[in-house]
Amino acid sequence: MSARGLGPVRSTLGWLEERAGLGGAIAPALDHPVPRSTASWWYVFGSATLALFVLQVVTGICLALVYVPSAEGAYQSLLYLNFQAPFGWFLRAVHFWGSNAMVAVMTLHMIQVFLWGAHKYPRELTWIVGVFLFLCTLGMAFTGQILRWDQDAYWGLGIGASIASRAPGVGDALVSLLLGGPIIAGRTLSRFFAVHVFLVPGILIGMIGLHIWLVLRIGINEWPMPGRVVTRETYRQRYEEEVHKDGVSFFPYAARKDMVACGVVVLAVVLCAVLFGPFGPHGVPDPTLIDTAPKPDFYFLALYALFALLPPWTETVVILVGPVLAIGALFLVPFIAGTGEKSWKRRPVAVLGVLVIVLTVTTLAGLGVAVPWSPQMEAWTAAATPVRYVKGRTPLELQGALVLQNKQCRTCHSLGGGGGRRGPALDGIATRQTRDQLIRQVLQGGGNMPAYGKNLSPAEVNALVAFMGTLRP
Amino acid sequence: MTPPSQSRRGFLFRLGIGLNVLGAALVGIPVVGYIFGPARRRTDGQSWIGLGPIGAFPAGETRLATYENPVRVPWDGATAKIACWVRHIKGERFQVFAVNCAHLGCPVRWFAQSRLFMCPCHGGAYYEDGSRASGPPPRGLFEYEYRVRDGALWVRGGQLPTLSRPV
Fold first, then answer.
1. Which of A107, A182, A366, B108, CA to CA, is 20 to 30 A from B47?
2. Which tops the pLDDT comparison, A280 or B20?
3. Residue A12 confidence (pLDDT) above 70
């Protein structure tokens, strides 16, 4: 376009600027000098998270145009979105993959700022607001999962209510508050809709504003150098000097990489949405259809696994005290280590802490995918008995093989790799237990196995043990 | 000169604060009551619910029964329905269990062959009488109060059973 063609645009912008003054207000934020070292690919995760948040807001508003927040109609409206509304499937898919990406990228952002020592003086409040943002986003993830009003949502609420009910004294009140009534039903969904669509997003927008304001006011964390210790007396002066001497203006020098990163994450979400499509809704939320194995979305798999693996007697304490300690620790980080070395090269405890947390969470989440503790409900009819275990066996032993199958031992015990993993695999059991030990174990149970004494006739026990006596490598 | 505390300006300032505090309280108290109402309402919606003639539950067997929750709103849809396990021991002796696992509320399934209830979530298992057999549950299955009237089975229910308020 020629310079003359731009004339009307320029005069319109000028008219707007004279009245609104937005350019004058934003320019200092864009031009503010940042340390040259921060124009790095490691510093893009915050902006990328913000881009994903904007994507969630846009797609979320679109979904709300069609979604019916009623227990009766929600499921149907999701199917309508998936199959009938133009691009409904795409918007649902982007919203789902966007939520996954937002949790993931935000976690990266949190790990990065922690390892780079950005929580130290004078950025303690920025970190604390960030922890609030993290918790709010996880809250959005959980409530969003509920709005996908399917079997997982219904029973996920059951899990939430069961956890809340363990709070001493107020458990019952908490459950009613969470559900909005005595059972998981219409009022529950309306409640979660309001929280997901109005309450938490409102808090998030305010907190994001505060977070960015703090970053602008105090300045972005410089690239930490080993040996450059943070002290309350000298830090700010040194930072100002560095920015003054060797700073670049945020826009466009540092913003370029942020812009690329924002584009990349949004495109990645769009790609996932197109490739994998929307997620669910799965089974209809009819509580009388109980042949279902509810599972949370990936961000809560680690918790889900933890509940299966904790010794039962520790569970209530861990459920109630664990989150308080974990969240409390996050808030206290800048007060415990608010000054001193910033570089991860001089902070072995911090690095080790991050590694331990990441390994623990990913291991637990991996177990949450594999669910070795869940009974294989179909194994007794679906898993074949390996040929080598029945070939050349006596009638009594073959009878025992049938008992093992029909009494559903394989719900928890595998044979030739098929069956549950709750109990030990039975291949080679004859080398580990004597006949008497096997009889005792079957009749009395123990070690996390139910007792089958009332449920098996002496003849069945005899045959079963005879069969197990042949199970050798 | 009048001191600021007695001036017209001081009065208006205090009046402004006072009116706003009053307004906030008049709106705020009902808002808090509205939000926390469900938590405060202790009148439990428990009532007797018919599960049908006892002929539908053969003696010695455990069957799934369903009912509509007595406390409901018209837009509950299918979620107003609740399932429970009915174990007919013999004669008029029954046990009626909530489907919700005592661990974290997932729906337990009945396996007649091994005479166990098993939970798909974290592997809790219960014997046919509802007592805990293995796994993480801290107690046996939640059991409804029941009675038999004129050949029909009735249970007392109306809320999600949890550890803090078992059935």
1. B108
2. B20
3. yes
Distance separating alpha carbons of residues A318 and A327, to the nearest angstrom: 13
| Per-residue pLDDT tens over the stretch A76-133 | 999 999 999 999 999 999 999 999 999 999 999 999 999 999 999 999 999 999 999 9
Cα angle A221, A349, A223 (rounded to 5 degrees) comes to 20
Q: What is the pLDDT of residues B45-100, one digit of tens each?
A: 789 999 999 999 999 999 999 999 998 899 999 999 999 999 999 999 999 999 99
d(CA A196, CA A203): 11
The span from the CA of A274 to the CA of A122, in Å, is: 43
| Distance of alpha carbon A71 from alpha carbon A147, whole angstroms | 9
Flag the least confident range among A66-80, A90-104, B4-18: B4-18
Domain covering A379-468: architecture: Orthogonal Bundle (1.10)
Residues of each domain in chain A carrying CATH 1.20.810.10: 26-370
Nearest CA distance, A135 vs chain B (angstrom): 22
Contacts of A374 in chain B (CB under 8 A): 120-123
Judge: A408–B100 Cβ closer than 8 Å, yes or no. no
- Contact between chains at A315 and B138 (C-beta distance less than 8 A): yes
Mark which residues 262-321 of A lie under 8 Å from B by CB.
284-288, 290-294, 304, 307-308, 310, 312, 315-316
Residue A316 confidence (pLDDT)? 87
As a whole number of angstroms, the distance between CA A165 and CA B162 comes to 6
Give the residue from A175, A183, A193, A422 with the most B CB atoms within 10 Å of its CB, the best one to mutate.
Answer: A183
Q: Give percent helix, percent strand, percent coil of chain B, each to the nearest 5.
A: 25, 35, 40
Distance from CA of B47 to the nearest CA of A (A): 12
Domain with CATH 1.10.760.10 in chain A: 379-468
CATH code, residues A26-370: 1.20.810.10
pLDDT at position A280: 87
- The pLDDT of residue A1 is 47
